[in-house]
TrEMBL record:
UniProt protein name: Pimeloyl-ACP methyl ester carboxylesterase
Domain AB hydrolase-1 as annotated: residue spans: 4-230
Pfam families the record matches: Abhydrolase_6 (PF12697)
InterPro entries linked to this entry: AB_hydrolase_1 (IPR000073), AB_hydrolase_fold (IPR029058), MES/HNL (IPR045889)
GO molecular function: methyl indole-3-acetate esterase activity; methyl jasmonate esterase activity
Organism encoding this protein: Sphingobium scionense
Domain of life of the organism encoding this protein: Bacteria
Length: 238
């Protein structure tokens, strides 16, 4: 039995992994799908101090208090920032990292630096509420931005999206343990269109895994292709 921790991306919550988690659990594995502070069902905890470090600590705390080890740690999109930070803080708890169409940061890089083409328009469409700069405000049809087309999935997703604190995207990742995070085995699961549209440096990072998978679907692949994603994760589990 493997232990999976599945970390969501911007504006989402642990809810987005429901389909994949069911399949992994049916195969006998332990699965945790934390929702990061200020998002999803934890949106009521939104405050001006939430940043990337907050979300890294969310996942580290889950591992600590649940007593988890030998973890397959999965991050989608912005979740790639989070899992890289988690791997730096507690590398001894992690068996392998899986980047699910995700950011691949290095020390000192923010998501704003890693993905400027996506982050600049995202910030431009943000707004401030009670002194908190929020982006990714949900709007009708937003699911199409994530490559979701099935009407039932569109409705289900759009009912659950929440705004995301900009500070998380603007704060640079700070690695405290040298290259500890990069010594861990890693798997990349890339959406083909995103891979094709990536600049050369970004594409090199997307393909630097010990194993690399490609899937022809939209960015929210855990929603659009849960069978394929679960099959790939089961291969990682061995």
């Amino acid at each position: 039995m493997a232990t999976f921790v599945l970390v969501h991306g911007g504006g989402h919550g642990g809810w987005c992994y429901q389909k994949v988690a069911r399949r992994l659990r049916a195969a006998g594995h332990e699965v945790h799908c934390p929702t990061l502070t200020g998002l999803g069902e934890r949106a009521h905890l939104l405050n001006a101090d939430i940043d990337l470090d907050t979300h890294i600590q969310d996942v580290v705390a889950l591992m600590t208090f649940e007593g988890l080890s030998d973890i397959i740690l999965v991050g989608h999109s912005y979740g790639g920032m989070v899992i890289t930070g988690v791997a730096d803080r507690v590398p001894d708890r992690i068996r392998e990292l899986v980047y699910l169409d995700a950011a691949h940061p290095r020390d000192g890089e923010s998501l704003q630096i890693v993905a400027p083409a996506q982050m600049e328009p995202t910030r431009a469409m943000g707004r401030s509420v009670d002194g908190i700069e929020l982006v990714m405000w949900p709007f009708p049809g937003m699911a199409s931005f994530f490559g979701i087309t099935d009407p039932a999935d569109v409705t289900w997703t759009e009912e659950r999206l929440t705004p995301h604190p900009w500070k998380c995207f603007g704060q640079p990742l700070r690695l405290e343990n040298g290259d500890a995070a990069f010594r861990l085995p890693r798997t990349n699961i890339n959406c083909i269109q995103a891979l094709q549209n990536s600049p050369d440096e970004a594409r090199a990072r997307q393909l630097d895994g010990h194993r690399n998978f490609e899937i022809d679907t939209g960015h929210d692949l855990m929603i659009t292709e849960p069978d394929a994603v679960a099959t790939m994760l089961l291969e990682v589990a061995g």
